[in-house]
Amino acid sequence: MQLGAEPSTLDDQDIFGVAGLWDRSKRDDDARVESCAIIAMPVSKRMSAIQNAKRRMPAILTRADRHS
């Protein structure tokens, strides 16, 4: 996905993915910790009609970017 590009639309996708980060780590006591975060981007014109005080939305992946 190109930074600053208009986000992918959902019009042509029955299933879609959002960009995110996932990590697994181990604490000093050997307990495993799994963490995740969803990548956000500035809200699109289409989504700005929805109440969105923070003016952001999840970064929607194109079909080509789903398994990157």
Compile the SSE list and pairings.
Elements: E1 20-26, E2 32-38, E3 40-42, E4 56-58
Antiparallel strand pairs: 1-2, 3-4
What does it look like?
This protein is 0% helix and 29% strand. With 68 residues, it is mainly beta. The protein has one domain. A hairpin with a 5-residue loop joins strand 1 and strand 2. It is flat.
Number of helices: 0
Number of strands: 4
Biggest sheet layout: 2 strands, antiparallel
**Globular, elongated, flat, extended or rod-shaped: what is the shape?**
flat
Mean pLDDT: 81
Number of self-contained structural domains: 1
Strand arrangement within the widest β-sheet reads: 1-2
* Ends distance: 10 Å
SSE arrangement, N to C: EEEE
The share of residues in extended strands comes to 25-35%
Main structural class: mainly beta
Measured as a percent range, the helix fraction is under 10%
Short description:
This protein has 68 residues and is mainly beta. It has no helices and four strands. It has one domain (1-68).
Q: Any descriptors?
A:
68 residues; two-stranded antiparallel ribbon
